[in-house]
Amino acid sequence: MPDLLLELRSEEIPARMQRKAAGDLKKLVTDALVEAGLTYEGAREYWTPRRLTLDIRGLNARSADVREDRKGPRTDANEKAIEGFLRGAGLTSISEAHVHSDPKKGDFYVAHIVKPGRPADEIIAEVMPGIIRNFPWAKPMRSGVASAKPGSLRWVRPLQSIVCTFGSETDETIVIPFEVDGIVAGNVTYGHRFHAPDAITVRRFGDYVEKLERAKVVLDADRRKQIIATDAANLTFATGLELVEDEGLLEEVSGLVEWPQVLMGYFEEDYLAIPSEIIRLTIKTNQKCFVTRAPGADTLSNAFILVANIEAKDGGKEIIHGNGKVVRARLSDAAHFWKRDQADLPDLATLAASADRFGLDLAKPLDQRMAKLDALNVTFQAKLGTQGARVARIRALGKTLSALTGADASLVDRASLLAKADLRTEAVNEFPELQGLMGRRYASLQGEHESVATAIEDHYKPQGPSDRVPTDKVAITIALADKLDTLTGFWAIDEKPTGSKDPYALRRAALGVIRILLERGLRIHLLPVFAEALRGHGADSTESADLLSFFHDRLKVYLRELGARHDLIDAVITPQADDLLMIARRVEALTAFLNSQDGQNLLAGTKRATQLLAAEEKKGTTIAPAVKAALLTVDAEKALFAAVDVAALNAREAVERDDFHAAMEALSRLRAPVDQFFVDVLVNDENVDVRANRLALLASIRAATGTVADFSKISG
């Protein structure tokens, strides 16, 4: 079966767009071919800075014939109806139609239409121009002479050539010569723009890859990544160093080169006095270079790894020299930021009011930055006020939470004051991703308690499912206060996540709270905390229930990802359940219980009891408000009554001391008496009082198990 080779070659495509664009090309082309009636065995996309390539294997040479039976009017219909049917079916005479009979509707015409298949190359030539013209680039541009014409091609960078060949391994390939804005698809591409700029004629994917390789182009992005990673590791090892790996940078750099050449440069050791994080980000952001360190060391070395796109005749000396000059200039700027952030601000006199408001010490650089943050009225969010107001709210909430987390209240207060101060430092202004981390360093430099410094960095955590959770109690407290202030604030102004839209990352904030509470074993009733935080935003507590429901939804997702069954989670969660740790522990205990034979049997008996009870409640059957011992006549119901009384008491006491496994064990003792009850006892007795009493006994089973979970919601 034939294969299709497609290449769209242009000026440099931004590295961040390449992988997605190649995936988009694959989907758009394969979807269009399938919709046109073609099938294929496999497809793979490739990309370099200057080309998107698609290799489709085992494509049908022709689409299949399509047969359609089009129903027409009755045979006795008027002439106009029949004429309309003939036009729509493409028939010239009614004699070309067939007559079908229906016992109810009588005889009617049917046109058997056969649409013949089409050659694949014809289909490809038809669909490709539209795909290219409507390609979903984020920021397309027009270029060249044709750009002045209405409807001219918009591409991310000027499109230069198109390759489109089609054919089997055993036959000669053909060119499918469609045209887009004067660019006609052919079988000619070009290699590396410096090393091999001449035209290359290709037939199919195999020789295309081989000829590109000879022309200094590595087509496979994953292979380019592997070349860079291996060469960089070998080069650093040879010099007694190790590479500081960075997957994001590796992905980006592999999209900047077609023929990767790994080199090593150096900067002056004096710059190593700058924090390693600043050095790494400076070199990464400005020069797309990797940093190195001595094996096992925490601090960096003064060597860096750069990736060039050409094999320089001088072994790369000029390239290394040029990159080194830029790196030194950027590190000089970084050193300036680092020193300036430790010095006094020039306008201290204007910060006195803010310092008094928060109790800040203007002799300390980080306190000065917090005062500056407040004095400038830096906006946090248009409807939620300034960063200064936010810090005041976090401070108040931190005081409440410290009593619940066991953190030192004075350290929590100090950490809340300085948590956002580094937002006014020059280092964070240059590299926003260093917020928190730089605050920690500056706090340590001015002699803050280690827990305060830790909290400044860790209160942003966790920022995702793989990020670590704070361990220090002060950091935990500030992290909770920060996230809960954000959540209640956006709830107060009715800016909640909707569908897939969550512009303020509120789902991530809620997941962060959940992970902190569960992974650090914290029991906190959220509803009163929500109410206090909402008051801090000038709102009443009416939004608390809705916010708790939002947390329940996020908790369900989190627990399901850990392997919990959705029905067990639903059985445990109630609208008022605001202790998330207890919910998780109930689910854990319930899961273990139902994995036992006693649990399965009790579930079956309990569901039978609750279903029977629910059916009678729906019919309006009289149910006694409480079980009367005098009306119990059968030994099995007497035994069940006694067992329920004991189990309910023991389960309730176990729940009160948060021992859910003991609660489940207490309920498990109901298994035998429940089973025996349904063997020996007829619930719907003819005597109305006896029936009402037995239904009350079933209600007591529901109430006893309900101390732990709603068994009616459990499947099985």
Largest sheet: 5 strands, antiparallel
The average pLDDT value, as a whole number, equals: 93
Content-based structural category: alpha+beta
Global shape: flat
| Number of helices in the DSSP assignment | 26
Our Rg estimate from Cα atoms comes to 36 Å
| Strands ordered across the widest β-sheet | 2-3-1-7-8
Number of domains: 5
Name the poorly predicted regions.
none
**Annotation, overall tally of beta strands:** 18
Query: What is the beta-strand fraction?
Result: 5-15%
Helix content: 40-55%
Distance between the termini: 51 Å
Task: Describe this protein's structure.
The structure is a single chain. This protein is of the alpha+beta class and 716 residues long. The chain folds into 5 domains: 3-61 and 119-214, no CATH class; 66-115, no CATH class; 221-338, no CATH class; 379-420 and 441-563, no CATH class; 590-713, Isoleucyl-tRNA Synthetase, Domain 1, CATH 1.10.730. Helices cover 50% and strands 13% of the residues. The protein is built from 26 helices and 18 strands. Strand 2 and strand 3 form a beta hairpin. The longest helix has 24 residues, at 317-340. The radius of gyration is 36 Å and the shape is flat. The model has no long low-confidence stretch (mean pLDDT 93).
